[in-house]
Design brief:
This protein folds into 2 domains: 116 residues, no CATH class; 120 residues, no CATH class. 56% of the residues lie in helices and 7% in strands. The chain has 10 helices and 5 strands; from the N terminus they run αβββαββαααααααα. The chain has a 5-stranded mixed β-sheet, covered by helices on one side. A hairpin with a 6-residue loop joins strand 1 and strand 2. Bound molecules: zinc ion. Zinc ion binds next to helix 3 and helix 4. This is Peptidase MA-like domain-containing protein. It comes from Clostridium hominis.
Length: 294
């Protein structure tokens, strides 16, 4: 009996030692795992304040709402959009950023942005002087201003394209790309074509042959920032630019187009890559529209 008790006691003691050992090792393991998580969290927190993600901050400033996603910080009057509307709009902006980045093979340069996010100024909320404190150290390109969200006419895709493809030297490539891709990515209808087909409009303006459209056609493809002299010429120039960019990009591919886009001499770069003069390319584009536009 004594021997049996001894065996049981020994077994119990061994069991206790094993249990406490495994408890010890759980604790032992727990520490490094937590530490690893902490390291990861710290890295993420340098970019994002996780606490503020996807929450509505009404204390930021009286009468305003601040809302953050992984890609953007939204700032809006609290009586303009309700929480659902802000959430829905924020989702469209985040989706747009990813779609544009993927299509153009470009990334937002997050070093310039607060918490690595872009700032979305809804209906001029951001123009409040207090709000600008938050923007002291960031570059102008980190901000997009949008309005007409309720009316579903917000130029957010257009503005995001300017933000992502910030390196340009000519207006026709810059505005042309933004207008063309705004429609391709199903952005809201907005200036200058308001949802109308850029190719159809271009052919109409070309065929109309008004003074403004002749001037806009002349300026198309020129380097730098054209002097339109009037708003109608600017509008037609923007629409021509969108259709012409679409034609060029479809002919040579996105990568080559982006090389031209980023080049400091757009005209020269376009002629080098296509082997054609700007005048010939414009003629080919118009002939293409005459064939394709129904
Ligand atoms: Zn623009």
């Amino acid at each position: 009996m004594n021997k049996k008790r001894y065996v049981i006691l020994t077994f119990v003691i061994i069991a206790i030692i094993l249990c406490s050992n495994s408890l010890y090792s759980i604790n032992n393991y727990a520490d490094p795992i937590v530490a690893e998580d902490d390291t990861l969290d710290t890295e993420v927190q340098e970019k994002f304040d996780l606490e503020e993600l996807y929450t509505f901050d009404y204390d930021y400033k009286d009468g305003y709402i601040r809302y953050c996603t992984e890609h953007a910080i939204f700032y809006s009057q609290s009586d303009y959009l309700n929480e659902d509307e802000i959430r829905e709009f924020a989702k469209r902006v985040d989706t747009g950023i990813i779609e544009i980045e993927t299509y153009l093979n470009m990334k937002l340069d997050s070093d310039h942005y607060i918490n690595s996010r872009i700032f979305v100024n809804i209906n001029d909320s951001m123009n409040e002087p207090e709000f600008n404190n938050e923007n002291n150290d960031i570059e102008h390109t980190a901000i997009i201003s949008v309005d007409n969200i309720k009316e579903k006419k917000a130029p957010y895709i257009h503005e995001l394209i300017h933000l992502i493809a910030w390196e340009y030297s000519s207006t026709w490539t810059k505005e042309g790309l933004a207008i063309y891709l705004n429609d391709m990515f199903n952005g809201d209808p907005t200036y200058p074509n308001n949802g109308y087909d850029i190719d159809k409009l271009s052919l109409q303006f070309y065929n109309n042959g008004t003074l403004e459209s002749l001037k806009a056609f002349d300026l198309l493809g020129e380097n730098g920032f054209p002097n339109y002299e009037d708003v109608e010429t600017e509008k037609i120039f923007y629409i021509f630019s969108a259709s012409f960019v679409k034609y060029i990009e479809n002919s040579i591919g996105t990568n080559d187009f982006i090389d031209i886009y980023k080049s400091s001499d757009t005209k020269n770069s376009l002629e080098n890559i296509t082997g054609k003069s700007i005048q010939i390319l414009k003629d080919e584009w118009i002939n293409h529209l005459k064939l394709e536009v129904k």
